Amino acid sequence: MDFLPPSDRCLRILAVEGMDDAGQSAVDTAHHLVDAWELQPAEAKLVAGFYDYSLVRPRIRRTGLDAEVEWPCIETYTGTVPGTPISVAVMIGSEPTFGWPEAFDELLAEADETDRVVLLGGAPAAVSHRRPLPVQVTSEQGDVVSAYEGVESAYGEGSAGFLEVFAVDLAARRIPAVALTVSVPGYVAGTPSPKAILSLLGAFEDLTGLVVSQYELVEDARAWEVGVEEFVEANPDLQDHVEHLESVAETSELPEAKGEAIAREFERYLQHRRRDGA
Question: Which domain of life is it from (predicted)?
């Protein structure tokens, strides 16, 4: 879909730990982009006054006998997408406790209406680990929904997380933004999920047209499936639950939808082969 900024502007990507990051899928996907594109650390944002340290704990890192305190913040990594002139800024960190409007101002201090923003998220859902993990692709902006095939209007009311509120704020600023939210099986939403990372990367590629190297993620995802399957088989009640999810999925899937999904996966496979020179 080529949801990309002009060559002189920036693609901004945000992932935060917290309620918007089931299975660490969003933050791990963002770190994967940083590594794949060899981005460099830039300034840290939200470094003071945005966190309740009794809820979002500092971390201690040790090197030999020396200890260092890492305070909660949003870390920024910048550079260009390899093989393109596209500037990118990936922001990763803890969801702030306080001052969300001020946090939005700080995160968007250098942004304008010609940038593009991708919000990465993960949500626990009634889905099976045995099947592809679906990704919702949504926007709060009608012009973005109209301009990009596959982007749907955001929906839902009530209490909201940081990314959902941020998406509304971005719409008010008229900065084009799309949220990618992967559904993570609720029964393993508290543990890292390589399969969810693969799903988010696939949706990101479909949205932007940027092919992202996946390194060992495919093997990690297979190992994750095997481990979760063993966990499920050891719990009869959970096994019944997963079987129910499977039956519901089989009933609701349409043949044409399956065909479209297979076509997208095959095209992505060909893109990776072309990039790898195979």
Answer: Bacteria
